[in-house]
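Schema walkthrough. Field components (list of strings):
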Amino acid sequence: MKAQELKKQSSVERILSAALEIFADSGFEGARIDEIAARAAVNKAMIYYHIGDKRALYARVLHDVFSDTATRLTQRVARAQTPVKKLKAYIRSMAATFEQHPLLPPILMREFASGGRNFPETVAEDMLRILDTVSSIVKQGHKKKVFIHVHPLVLHLMVVGTMTYIRSTRPVRQRLVDIAEKEVLLPESEDGSAPLADVEKLVLRAIKR
Amino acid sequence: MKAQELKKQSSVERILSAALEIFADSGFEGARIDEIAARAAVNKAMIYYHIGDKRALYARVLHDVFSDTATRLTQRVARAQTPVKKLKAYIRSMAATFEQHPLLPPILMREFASGGRNFPETVAEDMLRILDTVSSIVKQGHKKKVFIHVHPLVLHLMVVGTMTYIRSTRPVRQRLVDIAEKEVLLPESEDGSAPLADVEKLVLRAIKR
Amino acid sequence: MKAQELKKQSSVERILSAALEIFADSGFEGARIDEIAARAAVNKAMIYYHIGDKRALYARVLHDVFSDTATRLTQRVARAQTPVKKLKAYIRSMAATFEQHPLLPPILMREFASGGRNFPETVAEDMLRILDTVSSIVKQGHKKKVFIHVHPLVLHLMVVGTMTYIRSTRPVRQRLVDIAEKEVLLPESEDGSAPLADVEKLVLRAIKR
Amino acid sequence: MKAQELKKQSSVERILSAALEIFADSGFEGARIDEIAARAAVNKAMIYYHIGDKRALYARVLHDVFSDTATRLTQRVARAQTPVKKLKAYIRSMAATFEQHPLLPPILMREFASGGRNFPETVAEDMLRILDTVSSIVKQGHKKKVFIHVHPLVLHLMVVGTMTYIRSTRPVRQRLVDIAEKEVLLPESEDGSAPLADVEKLVLRAIKR
DNA sequence: CATGAATGAGTTTTCATTCAT
DNA sequence: GATGAATGAAAACTCATTCAT
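Field assembly_structure (string):
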């Protein structure tokens, strides 16, 4: 973004999106308040004035991303009719989230890696909503005998795990290509849509009777 | 470990295992040399004397874990006869690795999250060996018409992604239970073996003709 | 005070009384403009608009308290006839001042402690007037052979020192009681009047022939 | 002190005496860690390494001064025989403390002024020991009918209040002289010994039957 | 090998003060 | 008069790294 475009957004918006990028890039501990302020073209003290300390900023950023993820998911799933359609809606909704917030995967991964040390309470609630939705899909599909018996959590972790890994390993895989030369390691189209279709296919095969 | 037991290991060993724990817990940026030295019961300067700076220590720790993972995997897979057995061997070998090095998942996740910023070259080579093995399993299974067509990388990321997520989300899930109370979110036996069996089942269903 | 009552006073009045409290509580360096503004229910910039910077605010606050102290003292003493009565008038006037401005003792103590670094000129003049009054009382009493020879300054410091210590050590003494439990350390009635009577008695005994 | 002399003391000693001076001069909030480090000719980080944060440093400094004050006092008083001699011993011991630690008065005054906000627990215990000593002197003197009835706390505050005021108002009084010119306001010899003798005389007159 | 002390360059956070509206 | 936002300089505290012994 150019400086001019930046100025069109409010300070708070600029702070939040800069923070999102930098937290995604460097993690909570690695992120530097100075850098966030600089990228947001904002005086450092403004971050404290508008939002609070580093932890509060992180919480705010995460919450903003999570809250609408959860609501969108429940809505989409609710609109779908059969369990299979609901499952597809769930998978695509997750995919869409990662599409729209490509910075979420690294943040998520780091959070889990550190035991959720910096995880704000509000985000935890959003996660619970998501898990509830997955649970009900699985339960319903099982009752109607279209799905085998699976723990919904395992299913969810498989979907999220696979997707976030596909997205976030890209830079490392690129480095592997540079080193190895011999094989093509990146199947996806630039936007990741192809492998996400694969995920849908595989998950459905895994779970359908 | 008690102080006495600690003393039985060499300084270097103590440093490396302390570093592994702390890097797993806090990530590269979050880890503190002071803390590593304290946990290793070693003078801080000794780390620099024996191993080098923080980055070198990290590389050393990662390499030590990775190198034998790759060889064990190729050996086990080679011993299995049919594609299905090879696939099972691969999945179990990965599971065994995470079993034996429970600190690997968080480290891996963080590494990918940060684009492999701290990834040492040697580790990259180990990863390539693993991918080669997976590739050959898939190719062979497809040729023999027992597997559907999948990109081996997607398969691998699904296996690794699911497993590492199952392991590393445990603390966060625990917190969710504390918050929500309403549902049991932890299906696994303490060592995570149950869900890993699930993973095997699901992956086979997903991929088998 | 309730917000409604606050609004009845002018902004300046609210600022000044808020500032008095906070300076008394935290000292010049410890006081925060933000806090003063908040307590005065006034926008921070208004303090600068109406009064000036932190130092100016402090000077203003101090002066407001001191100016009438000095005049009241001289008046009361003038009205008394004999040296003993004058001395009593002086002691009671000082006591009344501290009664009316309970925030004065801490401010005074801090000022002296820091060598009067923030002492405004105007206040110095008020202090000189007070010392003059004490001097004349002592001189007259000595001439009439009712008082022993004392340096008026020592007398004044004894009176002021004792009184301000009695008042301002109360919180600390309370903490001592909490820690020690064994003895009652607070002789005064809540308003401090009892010990001030003691002071009068002791000072008179000390100085009378 | 010259740089050479400084080097003869250990870092910790240098830190502590620098801190004492600066805390006395500027109070807890006003003191700057940077300045303390500079005066101690020590790297700032060394303060944290050896002692801890600002509050810990303050506690350490205060405790060092207080602990021996209390013990010296009890010893001296114990050696004296009659109540009057004990009282004199007490007064002189306090005077000696202020003589030896001229930086104590300002620190004390500020502490009381701020309600003991930064008062470390250990110091509180030392204060209690002192108060106990004064109590027993008064009680004994009263029983033997040589003293009138006084609350020991009022006595103590009179002694300490007067002494600390005499010492700590000197700079302000000097400024008054500069402003007023007309009167000599400083009766004491440079070391404050003369007025302290006055204090002894006055207090004895006040309290003796 | 081992240790305690030292260093210097950050890093987060705070705060008095000012500006635009 | 009044307000919310902005600024810049400093303050406390941290940490990887090195040194002297």
